[in-house]
């Protein structure tokens, strides 16, 4: 039943790209790696139904976390988990309060919110804009729900939802893997609408971006460039269902950005890092006016409250007019140390489109992540 959770992590700490299909490790609620003090809640019914008892497949205390009183439709009671490190979350498992056959309470639905810093909380929504996740139908069966899109966060809140006044209890496990990139936000111009002749329109915006839109630029969040979904060779095709053409890409038209001829992006990280390289997945369907960037220049900032260093790293690509395949372009960063980067990607044609950006930096050690009991420990 849990075979889909058992997938192998790559051994090199420099690998930055994450495949959501491989990132499904239990994060430690059930086996106790997440400590009691790192599980909190808005309330509890009794001491024996406190947040520390919200552990999947466990029967400690009175068998689950139960918020105080009857849950109403307008309530926002929550269970909060501190994972201690930035984590790429792909899956949630929930149960109700079985309590050795005496329990009757479970959550039929719930919402998620998350935070990377413990201060700014963001509501999770799926790719169609729905926030409510279907929960349990009894107290004992585990219900797994995949997160599309995945979440990058340190803190996660599960918020039970009810249509009618009822008592709710939950046991949970979170699944994912460490977010080695350490990227906590990127900023960029908002993506644009492409109207190719004889083809459907392609909306190349960042539809899952969790930051803000101030005077149109994307600011202070993460989105499709870090969701682990790599765009196809034909940018009109998509891996997702019930979405529009061009969904997997963030894209810009050269003449829409003035005469500057480049797209400027800023990347902010959790701490100062020693960068080896940046990988940018770019479309190269040149028959429709799309090519990888011709060159990129990156500046570095050691602290957020500091000036950009004057010396940039500049990398020129080898343009390809024969192979229209999308591809990763690896940009060497020569062990430059920084907490923030500003990069200018220069156009090689009318359009430029990215589906993923990842960073490789030194000193990123992997925590001891365990597989389920049916797999091999890594």
Automatic annotation (TrEMBL):
Keywords: ATP-binding, Cell membrane, Disulfide bond, Glycoprotein, Membrane, Nucleotide-binding, Receptor, Signal, Transmembrane, Transmembrane helix. PROSITE patterns: FA58C_1, FA58C_2, FA58C_3. It is a single-pass type I membrane protein. Belongs to the protein kinase superfamily. Tyr protein kinase family. Insulin receptor subfamily. This is Discoidin domain-containing receptor 2. One of its GO terms (cellular component) is plasma membrane. Residues 1-16 form the signal peptide. Residues 23-177 form the F5/8 type C domain. InterPro entries: DDR1-2_DS-like (IPR048525), FA58C (IPR000421), Galactose-bd-like_sf (IPR008979). It comes from the Eukaryota. CDD domains: FA58C. It is found in: Cell membrane. It holds the Pfam family DDR1-2_DS-like. SUPFAM superfamilies: Galactose-binding domain-like (SSF49785). One of its GO terms (molecular function) is ATP binding. Its main location: membrane.
């Amino acid at each position: 039943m849990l075979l889909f959770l058992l997938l192998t992590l790559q051994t090199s700490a420099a690998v930055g790209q994450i495949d959501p299909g491989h990132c499904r490790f239990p994060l430690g609620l059930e086996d106790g790696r997440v400590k009691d003090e790192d599980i909190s809640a808005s309330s509890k019914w009794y001491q024996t139904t406190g947040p520390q008892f919200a552990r999947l497949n466990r029967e400690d205390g009175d068998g689950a976390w139960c918020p105080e009183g009857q849950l109403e439709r307008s309530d926002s009671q929550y269970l909060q988990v501190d994972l201690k490190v930035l984590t790429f979350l792909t899956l949630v498992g929930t149960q109700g309060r079985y309590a050795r056959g005496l329990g009757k309470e479970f959550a039929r639905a719930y919402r998620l919110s998350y935070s990377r810093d413990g201060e700014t909380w963001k509501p999770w929504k799926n790719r169609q804009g729905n926030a409510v996740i279907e929960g349990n139908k009894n107290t004992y069966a585990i219900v797994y729900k995949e997160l599309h899109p995945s979440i990058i966060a340190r803190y996660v809140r599960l918020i039970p939802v009810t249509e009618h006044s009822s008592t709710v209890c939950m046991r949970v496990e979170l699944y994912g893997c460490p977010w080695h990139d350490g990227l906590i936000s990127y900023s960029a111009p908002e993506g644009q609408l492409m109207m190719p002749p004889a083809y459907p329109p392609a909306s190349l915006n960042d539809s899952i971006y969790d930051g803000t839109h101030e005077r149109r630029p994307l600011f202070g969040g993460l989105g499709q460039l870090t969701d682990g979904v790599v765009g196809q060779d034909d940018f009109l095709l998509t891996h997702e269902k019930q979405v529009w053409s061009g969904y997997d890409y963030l894209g810009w038209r050269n003449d829409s950005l003035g005469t500057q001829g480049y797209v400027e992006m800023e990347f902010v990280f959790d701490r100062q890092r020693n960068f080896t390289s940046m990988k940018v997945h770019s479309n190269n369907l040149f028959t429709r006016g799309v090519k990888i960037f011709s060159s990129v220049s990156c500046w570095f900032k050691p602290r957020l409250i500091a000036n950009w260093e004057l010396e940039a790293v500049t990398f020129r690509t080898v343009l390809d007019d024969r192979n229209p395949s999308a591809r990763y372009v690896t940009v060497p960063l020569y062990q430059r140390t920084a907490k923030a980067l500003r990069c200018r990607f220069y156009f090689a044609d009318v359009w430029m489109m990215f589906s993923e950006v990842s960073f490789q930096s030194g000193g990123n050690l992997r925590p001891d992540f365990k597989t389920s009991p049916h797999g091999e420990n890594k």
